Amino acid sequence: MKRCAWCNENNPVYMQYHDAEWGRPRFDDTYLLEMLILESFQAGLSWECVLNKRENFRRAFDGFERAKIMAYDAEKQEKLACDPGIIRNRRKIKAAVDNAVIFDAVVHEYGSFIAYLKQFWDGETIFERDLTHNELSDRISADLIKRGMKFVGTTIVYSYLQAVGIVNSHEKTCFLYQTK
């Protein structure tokens, strides 16, 4: 089976992610928060690095339960910063907590995070390749930053949109390639 060139076929975790998750629509709020947090930790690093630590992140961040993350105090954040199983960047850890609070406010305002995203997007999968951002990621990023989120630049938001299945970017040679 031919996969996208970025998929390290020597890494079963990466292959599973590529084959069963990346580019497939999944819009429940817990998953959308998980992917937003994980993508923010990717800033300056490789996705493979983050993905290899995903189970540790799930453990450390209480299964990405929004209410629990929002309650993380300085002591809990310091504990996370000392956890060798995750990326221990204090700025990203604080951003994850602050972003969860903002995510929660968005969910309360719109009913769900996907409803919020749909104010920018028509609900149809976008099929495009070889981009690092687009007009959609530019608009969402600008709005999230305006709301106070950190580590949500347009490139990170574009990767997020790919991860959750709003943008499908499988390469033409990949067995998952689609045009519509």
Automatic annotation (TrEMBL):
The organism's place on the tree of life at top rank: Bacteria
Gene Ontology MF annotations: DNA-3-methyladenine glycosylase activity; metal ion binding
Any single GO BP term: base-excision repair
InterPro entries assigned to the protein according to its UniProt record, in alphabetical order: Adenine_glyco (IPR005019), DNA-3mA_glycosylase (IPR052891), DNA_glycosylase (IPR011257)
Binding site for Zn(2+): C4, H18, H170, C174
Signal peptide from the UniProt entry: none
Coiled-coil positions: none
Keyword Zinc: yes
Keywords: Metal-binding, Zinc
Keyword Metal-binding: yes
Pfam families xrefs: Adenine_glyco
PANTHER family tied to this protein: DNA-3-METHYLADENINE GLYCOSYLASE 1, DNA-3-METHYLADENINE GLYCOSYLASE I
Protein name, entry field: DNA-3-methyladenine glycosylase I
